[in-house]
Design brief:
With 119 residues, the chain is an alpha/beta fold. It is built from five helices and four strands, in the order ββαβαααβα. It has a four-stranded parallel β-sheet with strand order 1-4-2-3. The protein is globular, with a radius of gyration of 14 Å.
């Protein structure tokens, strides 16, 4: 099972393998206390896309389209496969992100793409 979670939430017994999917390290979180097994910053939206989006809910739909396009590039496809392989190896995988907005987060788009890949 692959799930998403804010990195600021408490570590859960069922988190399994924890992957940080943000390009930047989260503010106020020490590496020792983050319990991150892998920092896969390359799978995060590009800096240009992240800055363009600026967490503006009105840009959400277009952001999702642009991010899906980025995820369809070959390097990112490999990262999607890597996450699926880690799920097979560890059973539970938690994708961690720092954003406050739990509705307009790249983590949801990424999870959708991973699930689509396994369908």
């Amino acid at each position: 099972m692959i799930r998403i979670k804010r990195i600021y939430e408490q570590l859960g017994d069922d988190d399994g393998y924890r992957i940080l999917i943000d390009r930047l390290w989260p503010r106020g979180v020490s590496k020792e206390n983050a319990h991150v097994d892998l920092w896969l910053k390359e799978i995060a939206p590009s800096t240009e896309l992240r800055k363009w989006f600026g967490h503006d809910p009105e840009k959400w739909k277009e952001f999702g389209e642009r991010y899906r396009k980025e995820l369809s590039e070959e390097e990112e496809k490999e990262d999607l496969r890597r996450i699926k392989d880690l799920e097979k190896e560890h059973e539970n995988v938690t994708l961690l992100y720092a954003g406050k907005d739990e509705v307009h987060t790249h983590a949801l788009v990424l999870l959708e793409m991973i699930n689509k890949k396994s369908s």
